[in-house]
Amino acid sequence: MRFLPLATAFSIVAATSAIAAPPVQTVNTDKGKVIAAENGMTLYTYKKDEKGESYCYDKCAANWPPYLADASAKAEGEYTLVERKDGKKQWALKGMPLYFWIKDAKKGDVTGDGVGKVWDAARP
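Structure tokens predicted for Lipoprotein with Yx(FWY)xxD motif:
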């Protein structure tokens, strides 16, 4: 019984730290190392965005889904949060919002890199 409160406290701390930064990983691709979400899918930045602000909505967001954060997520290190027009939070790297590309099909795909000369794979 004495360890139950410690176990509970550990669970709370673990849960809190799990939302402190986005679950990302570095993935090797044919274009070098890129940052990918927990699911292994490459993340991208949009040159028309500004630090701390997304300009990708409607049709753009249908093709480039934002990397959304849980409502209780907290920024950590180079990973920050951007509030979208709909009130949802989006992960950002060094202030630049992060997105997926609907044409990437599997881990390591970087088919969105360079699209329209305004989309870049996020790099470590």
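The chain has one domain: 21-121.
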